[in-house]
Design brief:
The chain has 978 residues and is mainly α. It has 37 helices and eight strands. An eight-stranded mixed β-sheet has the order 4-3-5-1-6-7-2-8. It is elongated and about 110 Å long.
Length: 978
């Protein structure tokens, strides 16, 4: 025993490895995903002068700042007031069509007035491509500042902070504008104390599809007639909420579009009347922050998610036909510089956008070129900040340059390319000015200047948008090294524990050195799976379609187990061990594997997951064609099957019958309440906002939580404590044949019986919770996952004493990951179920909705981790090579908890470390933000899931162990007194 690792030492080393891993991961995340730095300050008078040219000092006050801007910009503002209307989640193709095709007929009929504006040329629409992550807060920041935010803005979206970067609203405030905001309270968090009037609503409470928009529209008519504001922001959330609940094809989608069309009509008619009365010139800009996938979610980088809208109503342009008014593609960041120059304020300092072509058609040629020049100067300043070597010293301060026109190709370093492109545009512009003075200017000269400016602007904008923020290489390297150290520590502990549990393994391998396979093929494959996963991480396509790897892994693993089982059937020539009396056990194991293969195949075909092949048919799409009532019936049947399977599994418990009956009754009540909720409220997706449905869901949460905790706390205390004599008289277990073993086997059996009942309660309660939270179509996969896990437990309970616990736990881990993708999850943020995260919430809570979102997303991995409590109970104690007469209870506790806790931690640490290295290597890849970074966020979230699951298993088993030891001491003390 000198070389064995004590329970305390194993625990300390494991905790040390986990702490190192957490610290290393935190360091890497905050080094790789820093908050993107921005140029300090705000754009002012200097923005109207060329870079390196000192502006003329003006002793202006806030009252004449607006006129000073107008004088220096040489561009008169076209409008007096701006109405900025955001329709959250509206895909541009709903209004503008796609691929040279108009929208569907039902979508055209849903917005007749807006379509008439486009057809008549009174509005011009653009497909404004949004940058990932496609969530609200970073998209709003992009539209008002023109800057691409950091990728971690997807996390800050749930806890918005004030926007400190230069932006349009602050520029408007500096010239004395009064601003009104109605709608999404994200605006109030971004711009606190900036609005003179406001009415904010929560953007995350997606169950509300009606009131959330009525709160905006109820003030609209009064505000349209008010004359004390210059900027009116309207942010409608209902359409986005409709998408989250029912998807693009929701029955509420067209009515919601019609409601938005009525708002556009009201605003446009009011603005037209005011323009006719010469009260004010008003521009209406209708935008969306992002689009949505077919199921209504967003966050990723697909066309459906990034296809946002930019519609300008009121511009005087030369558009005369519908096609030219609707098939224009720009970037979302282009909105900021366009609005800045339309309203006569400086372009925000960190803007990377380009003026939208077609929005300045009513300007003179001089003014259009001046606008492009101001945009070029702003981007040139940003380039100089990003490229210290960039210095176009030949940029004149007097506005004229007499160099060559620069018609040659620009090549070389990025500094040379940018200077060359800008110089070409500036020279053409100056050449046009000279010809204008002589009266010989022509259209070709103007067109050449515009084209040259746009060539520079587009090149600079694209480069700045892709610019990867400089990362501290030393911090990243230290984080990776620390993660490698943590992984090696966990793997070393697994190897040491395996040698202790199987002390004869080395001798067994030596004695079989002449065999064909030194390592069993199933063990070899389980280890090779890790290598397969690590290698696949370097491919963006395999990251997007990771579910295929897990499906292959789990199916192949079961086939290898079936092959191994057939080889060692009684009578088989490979049955070298000469096992007898194992016909029954082999039949049970073979039936279990066949059931696992069949259920796994159904799960694999339930959702066509991933990114590229979601349009292909699958079981879920076929069922959805049957209608909501058909899905509701399947959901009800799935709930009954889950409840029946759980109660059937409880009948195998060897605990005291009354204990099993009490736990079974509590599970039955919980299950019936879930079924009641399914029958009463989940037939209609929108009934979840019903008050009674919310109360019932809260009651279910309370019963499941209190019941589970009560089971964990109470079962070890009421579990019968057997002494040796009682053990012998009652013949508790067939393995307790020798009286010398009873002293050891009795506490072991008490521990295992308690673990079985608690583990079953964990699993069944988790499945009932998932039936409540998951989309109705996922109810049957929840049942199949529970059946797979219980079937695996049946197989492992009949495995031979020589079976490897690490292999079985690893296979369960793989089963959990395959189930994760079987529920429709992927490595894109768009598959996160937002709607279910508000089940049972009467108002928005970032913390509670975030917890529910995590529970829904990691339903399968957490179910497998909770099943480890049951796995410990079903393993034959003969498989634990622990001397029964000399060992303490802590020793077999270490052996029992070791593999269920260490193997998930070890496997996850390998994958986490490997993908961290991959992300570091791919930091300059084209898909680093759209594919690799979202996957890394999932890897981090999976790590948190593993930590939580292992913690729950360890704390549960330690608590059971301590209670049983305490009770036994009390019993011994009582026997001594008697």
């Amino acid at each position: 025993m000198a070389n064995t690792t004590s329970c305390t030492k194993l625990t300390v080393l494991t905790l040390t490895a986990v702490i190192i891993q957490i610290a290393a991961l935190s360091l890497f995340v905050f080094s790789f995903f820093p908050v993107k730095p921005a140029l300090s300050g705000v754009s002012g008078l200097e923005s109207f002068y060329a870079p390196h040219c000192n502006p003329v000092v003006h002793n202006q006050t806030e009252t004449d700042l607006k006129s000073l801007y107008q004088e220096l910009s040489q561009i008169p503002p076209l409008f007096d007031r701006l109405i900025f209307m955001v329709i959250d989640g509206l895909p541009a193709e709903f209004l503008l069509g796609k691929d040279e095709k108009p929208p569907r007929d039902d979508l055209i009929k849903a917005m007749p007035y807006t379509q008439s504006l486009l057809n008549s040329g009174m509005a011009v629409g653009y497909h404004a491509k949004a940058a990932p992550p496609t969530v609200t807060m970073p998209r709003l920041k992009a539209m008002v500042s023109g800057a691409i935010g950091g990728f971690l803005d997807v996390a800050f979206n749930f806890n918005t902070q004030a926007l400190l970067d230069d932006n349009l609203l602050d520029q408007f405030f500096r010239i004395g504008w009064k601003m009104i905001m109605l709608g999404d309270e994200t605006w109030l968090k971004l711009f606190p104390e900036l609005f003179v009037r406001y009415d904010g609503v929560s953007s995350f409470f997606v169950k509300d599809t009606v009131q959330v928009d009525q709160n905006v529209s109820r003030h609209l008519r009064d505000e349209l007639h008010a004359e004390d504001w210059k900027l009116l922001i309207l942010h409608y959330l209902g359409l986005d909420h409709v998408g989250h609940i029912g998807g693009r094809s929701s029955s509420l989608m067209c009515p919601k579009l019609t409601e938005m069309d009525e708002v556009v009509k009201m605003i446009h008619l009011s603005s037209t009347q005011m323009n006719a009365d010469h009260q004010a010139q008003t521009l209406l800009v209708v935008v969306s922050d992002h689009g949505m996938t077919e199921n209504g979610n967003h966050g990723g980088s697909s066309f459906e998610e990034t296809d946002s809208l930019a519609l300008f109503v009121g511009l005087k342009n030369g558009v005369s036909d519908y096609k030219s008014a609707t098939h224009n593609f720009v970037h979302q960041v282009d909105i900021a510089p366009t609005l800045a120059l339309l309203f006569g304020v400086p372009i925000p300092k960190n803007n990377v956008g380009v003026l939208i072509s077609g929005t300045f058609d009513s300007f003179t040629d001089d003014q259009q070129l001046r606008a492009l020049e101001l945009n070029s100067w702003q981007l040139l300043r940003l380039l100089e900040a990003e490229l210290p070597g960039l210095s176009c010293e030949f940029v004149p301060c007097d506005g004229f340059s007499y160099g060559a026109s620069g018609t040659g190709d620009c090549s070389g370093s990025m500094e040379n390319i940018f200077c060359c492109l800008y110089t070409k545009a500036a020279n053409l512009h100056n050449f046009w000015k000279l010809k204008k003075k002589t009266g010989s200017k022509n259209w070709d000269d103007f067109s050449s200047s515009v084209a040259a400016y746009y060539e520079f602007l587009n090149t600079a904008s694209e480069w700045l948008s892709r610019r990867v923020t400089d990362k501290p290489v030393s911090s990243l390297a230290f984080g990776v090294v620390a993660m490698i150290l943590s992984s090696l520590m966990l793997l070393s502990l697994i190897i040491c524990l395996s040698r202790e549990v199987h002390p004869g393994e080395k001798q067994y391998l030596s004695s079989s050195s002449n065999s064909r396979h030194r390592w069993p093929i199933d063990e070899t494959f389980i280890l090779c799976v890790v290598l397969i996963l690590v290698v696949s991480m370097g491919s963006s396509s395999m990251v997007e379609e990771e579910q295929y790897i897990w499906n292959f892994v789990i199916s192949t693993s079961y086939l290898l187990l079936l092959r191994k089982l057939v080889q060692f059937l009684p009578g088989s020539s490979r049955n070298a061990l000469g096992l007898k009396g194992c016909n029954g056990r082999s039949s049970i194991q073979m039936s279990s594997i066949l059931l696992l293969l069949i259920s796994g195949r159904i799960l694999r075909g339930w959702h066509q997951g991933g990114v590229n092949w979601t349009h292909l048919s699958d079981i879920s799409k076929w069922l959805e064609h049957g209608g909501s009532k058909f899905i509701g019936l399947i959901q009800l049947v799935s709930g009954l099957l889950v409840l029946s399977l759980g109660l059937f599994a409880s009948s195998f418990s060897r605990s005291k019958r009354k204990i099993v009956q009490v736990v079974g009754f509590y599970l039955l009540i919980s299950g019936l309440l879930v079924l009641w909720h399914i029958m009463e409220y989940q037939d209609n997706s929108y009934a979840s906002s019903n008050y009674h449905a919310t109360i019932l869901a809260q009651i279910i949460y309370a019963i499941l939580g209190i019941g589970t905790i009560s089971t964990v706390v109470a079962v070890p205390w009421i579990m019968p404590i057997w002494n040796s004599a009682a053990c012998s008289r009652r013949s508790i277990d067939s393995l307790s044949s020798a009286s010398t073993d009873n002293q050891y086997k009795s506490p072991l059996l008490e521990f295992k019986y308690s673990s079985y009942l608690i583990g079953l309660a964990y699993m069944l309660c988790w499945c009932l919770l998932q039936l409540l939270l998951q989309q109705p179509i996922n109810s049957m996969p929840i049942f199949l996952l529970l059946m797979q896990i219980l079937t695996s437990m049946l197989y492992y309970s009949h495995s031979s004493p020589r079976s490897k616990e690490w292999l079985e736990v690893a296979l369960l881990y793989y089963l959990g990951m395959a189930g994760h993708f079987a529920l429709g999850n992927s490595n894109t943020l768009a598959t996160i179920d937002v709607a279910g995260a508000f089940m049972g919430l009467s108002s928005h809570s970032t913390l509670l909705s975030g917890i529910l979102m995590f529970i829904i997303t990691y339903a399968s991995p957490m179910l497998v981790l909770l099943s480890m409590v049951m796995y410990i109970s079903v393993k034959d104690d003969a498989s634990y090579a622990v001397p029964t007469q000399t060992v303490e209870l802590g020793q077999f506790l270490k052996v029992m908890l070791g593999f269920p806790c260490l193997v998930p931690l070890g496997l996850n640490s390998i994958l986490l470390t490997a993908y961290t290295i991959v992300l570091l290597l791919m930091r300059n890849h084209l898909f680093v933000w759209s594919v690799f970074s979202p996957k890394f966020l999932y890897v981090c979230a999976t790590t948190i899931c593993i930590y939580i699951g292992v913690f729950v298993v360890a704390v549960t088993e330690i608590y059971v162990y301590m209670v049983l030891v305490l009770r036994r001491k009390i019993q011994v003390s009582g026997d001594g007194i008697r």
